[in-house]
């Protein structure tokens, strides 16, 4: 978890997305009326409000002067409202039942709120400006003086900075009053990177349609889509592509070279031709909305008037974010160990008073458990399990249905099911991850690398090994790691390549039946935990051959299962110490229980056709009392929970084989023993420990709540600073009429 909750920012306008490649299908705009889009629909000027505020009144004139000089904007043009609708608002109409009127009112509130906060953030940093700061006017003069008017690009950049003076105002405050060291420049570089990345994303999206059209002979076999782990290709929030102390990233238009764009990575199949086509469409759409000025040189997107329009907006939002984070940091700095301990004690006492008297309340609370919602008090023999479901094939389902329709006794049905179960195979379902259709272009998550030697690789010694999610697994500088995902289990099947060596087809191995799958699972757990597939850490016992289908399966012939070994095909356990199984260590990545669970979770993504456990926190919540699960699953799940973390069982049901693994267990009473501040923070903190997660969660929640409350106060104080020109966008409010 990050030290702070991510602030839900009002996105930069990014007209590139809304007015170029936005696929909203919304055609309400009157494109032949550019003057209409240029109308000012609202203004915001907080200088008069600041004059009445004791803490800020001496800065009211400074804010007013910046506004008069154009170095701090007050105007919201209609095009911003329309772009905001295309980027955000349209989904509210389409997906959430909002009316057009309510949506545009909501968007206008968001735009004016952001303008208020931008102006207030400038006043805040003026108030806190150190005496030795270079000063905004001097900074502006220095920045402009750096640009050589004998260089055409620098001359154009200077013209644009003079046309959009707010850009340098925002840069001054984002860089700690004009500092140039790497740390001070980070917020500014982050805003630039976010803007350029958004432009590249927009061009990527448009280019993909040309790539698909160009390669329509591209005859890949696509498996059905397959759920991916949460966080795949998620970039770290603070990532910046740097070359030394310089931002190393630019917008690729095809009119420049890829090598000039630093760490930007082109989409698969991209050529300079397809990129130029995408950029031409981009420019054409900007032209259509009056965002390209006559005579502009469009070769470099970052020297367009449009780019500086976006840059001004993006930097303003970045300053609001910086202000918000500074408020959070102040709250965090003031939080003490006693504060955290008091909160822990309050939560524990409150939960105990409720849960020890109400199983129903505890059952409900189980559904909300996460790394920032903790059950500090638990009830005996409750827990969570993962479920790997290896299903009957369609033909086997039909055969079983036919057998049941013959009027067989329960014993006869079990026997018929048993015969079908012997032919159920484990099929690796990750073929879709090699070539999945996504946003009209291919997303290929597979890459060639060595890992665990699975069944297919053992049988085919010359076959290549393919893993998934190289970004997350091997580029920790840029991408977030995947939680509870070991990432070392190769695709269990054949990968066919075409004559160009490109992926063509994934063919899963279909020879692995239940006994082979159990051996594969145990071998992979051992490999992940000990680095040795034969270590014996995960091991179990197969039940007697007659057990899971005879009349003993249901002794009373009433549909209720009575004995564990009457239906369990196989039972096992990962050998873990009590300390490793301690709930307080559940998310410590070096912990063997975490490693084992990561292995099982990965196999679940590979093989299970039960979507209910995928990307869940612990899996299915299991009560020791009657549940809604099918009887076989219920009994086995309850049994492995009683046995504890790392226990597993293989059982049949009318759906196929279930491999049920205990991921978490409550033993009753105080779950984590205590809050340990030494593990929570500081040089000796234990990342992922309960105390660490609890501390980070409380810190983030407290900081976010305080910062949000402060911002709401600012917004409420400055509502009178907003002037709306409703008649100028009344046509948008009346769209449903």
Describe this structure as you would to a colleague.
- There is one protein chain.
- The chain is an alpha+beta fold.
- Helix content is 45%, strand content 11%.
- The strands form 7 sheets. A 6-stranded antiparallel sheet has the order 13-14-16-17-6-15, sandwiched between helices.
- A hairpin with a 2-residue loop joins strand 7 and strand 8 (441-443).
- The radius of gyration is 30 Å and the shape is globular.
Quick one: how many beta strands? 19
Overall geometry comes to globular
The proportion of residues in beta strands is: 5-15%
Q: Residue ranges: pLDDT <50 for 5 or more in a row?
A: 1-25, 216-221, 436-442, 550-555
Radius of gyration: 30 Å
Bin the helical content.
40-55%
Report the mean per-residue pLDDT as an integer: 88
Could you tell me how far the N terminus lies from the C terminus, measured between alpha carbons in angstroms? 47 Å
**What's the helix count?**
25
Largest sheet: 6 strands, antiparallel
SS-based structural class? alpha+beta
Strand order of the largest sheet: 13-14-16-17-6-15
């Amino acid at each position: 978890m990050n030290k702070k909750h991510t602030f839900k920012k009002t996105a930069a306008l990014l007209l590139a997305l809304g007015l170029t490649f936005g696929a909203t299908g919304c055609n309400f705009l009157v494109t032949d009326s550019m003057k209409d889009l240029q109308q000012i629909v609202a203004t915001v000027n907080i200088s008069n409000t600041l004059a009445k505020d004791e803490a800020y009144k001496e800065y009211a004139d400074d804010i007013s002067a910046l506004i008069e000089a154009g170095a701090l904007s007050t105007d919201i043009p209609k095009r911003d409202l329309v772009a905001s609708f295309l980027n955000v608002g349209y989904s509210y109409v389409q997906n959430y039942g909002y009316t057009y009127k309510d949506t545009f009112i909501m968007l206008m509130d968001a735009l004016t709120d952001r303008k208020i906060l931008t102006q207030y953030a400038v006043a805040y940093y003026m108030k806190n400006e150190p005496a030795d700061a270079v000063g905004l006017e001097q900074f502006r003069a220095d920045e402009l003086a750096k640009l050589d008017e004998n260089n055409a690009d620098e001359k154009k950049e200077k013209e644009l900075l003079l046309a959009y003076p707010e850009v340098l105002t925002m840069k001054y405050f984002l860089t700690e009053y004009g500092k140039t060291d790497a740390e001070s420049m980070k917020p500014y570089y982050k805003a630039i990177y976010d803007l350029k990345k958004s432009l590249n994303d927009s061009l990527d999206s448009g280019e993909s349609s040309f790539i698909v059209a160009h390669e329509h002979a591209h005859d890949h076999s696509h498996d059905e889509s397959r759920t991916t782990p949460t966080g795949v290709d998620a970039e770290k929030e603070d990532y910046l592509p740097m070359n030394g102390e310089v931002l190393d990233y630019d917008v690729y238009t095809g009119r420049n070279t890829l090598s000039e764009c630093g760490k930007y990575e082109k989409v698969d199949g991209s050529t300079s031709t397809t990129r130029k086509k995408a950029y031409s469409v981009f420019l054409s759409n900007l032209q259509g909305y009056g965002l390209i000025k006559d005579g502009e040189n469009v070769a470099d997107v970052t020297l367009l008037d449009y780019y500086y329009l976006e840059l001004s907006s993006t930097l303003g939002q970045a300053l609001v974010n910086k202000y918000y984070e500074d408020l959070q940091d102040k709250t965090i700095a003031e939080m003490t160990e006693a504060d955290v301990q008091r909160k822990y004690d309050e939560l524990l006492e409150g939960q105990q008073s409720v849960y020890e008297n109400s199983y129903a309340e505890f059952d409900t609370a189980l559904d909300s458990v996460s790394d920032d919602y903790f059950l500090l008090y638990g009830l005996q023999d409750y827990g969570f399990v993962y479920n790997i479901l290896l299903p009957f094939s369609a033909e086997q389902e039909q055969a079983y249905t036919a057998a049941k329709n013959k009027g067989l006794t329960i014993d006869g049905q079990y026997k018929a099911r048993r015969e079908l179960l012997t032919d159920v195979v484990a099929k690796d379902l990750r073929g879709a991850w090699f070539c999945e259709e996504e946003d009209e272009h291919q997303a290929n998550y597979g890459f060639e690398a060595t890992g665990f030697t699975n069944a297919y690789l053992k049988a085919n010694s010359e076959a290549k090994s393919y893993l998934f999610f190289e970004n997350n697994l091997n580029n920790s500088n840029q991408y977030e790691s995947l939680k509870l995902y070991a990432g070392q289990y190769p695709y269990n099947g054949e990968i066919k390549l075409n004559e160009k060596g490109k992926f063509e087809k994934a063919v899963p191995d279909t020879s692995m039946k239940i006994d082979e799958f159990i051996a594969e699972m145990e071998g992979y757990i051992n490999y992940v935990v000990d680095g040795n597939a034969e270590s014996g850490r995960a091991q179990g016992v197969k039940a007697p051959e007659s057990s899971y289908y005879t009349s003993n399966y249901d002794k009373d012939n009433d549909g209720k299962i009575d004995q564990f070994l009457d239906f369990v095909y196989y039972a096992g356990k990962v050998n873990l110490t009590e300390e490793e199984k301690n709930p307080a260590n559940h998310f410590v990545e070096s912990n063997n229980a975490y490693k084992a669970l990561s292995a099982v979770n990965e196999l679940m993504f590979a093989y299970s056709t039960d979507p209910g456990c995928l990307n869940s926190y612990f899996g299915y919540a299991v009560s020791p009392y009657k549940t809604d699960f099918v009887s076989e699953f219920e009994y086995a799940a309850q049994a492995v929970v009683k046995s504890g973390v790392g226990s597993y069982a293989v059982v049949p049901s009318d759906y196929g084989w279930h491999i049920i693994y205990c991921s978490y267990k409550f033993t009753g009473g105080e779950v984590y023993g205590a809050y340990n501040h030494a593990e929570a923070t500081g040089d000796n903190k234990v990342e992922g420990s309960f105390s660490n997660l609890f501390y980070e969660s409380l810190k983030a929640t407290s900081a976010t709540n305080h910062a949000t409350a402060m911002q709401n106060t600012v917004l409420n104080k400055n509502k009178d600073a907003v002037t709306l020109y409703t008649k100028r966008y009344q046509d948008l409010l009346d769209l449903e009429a």
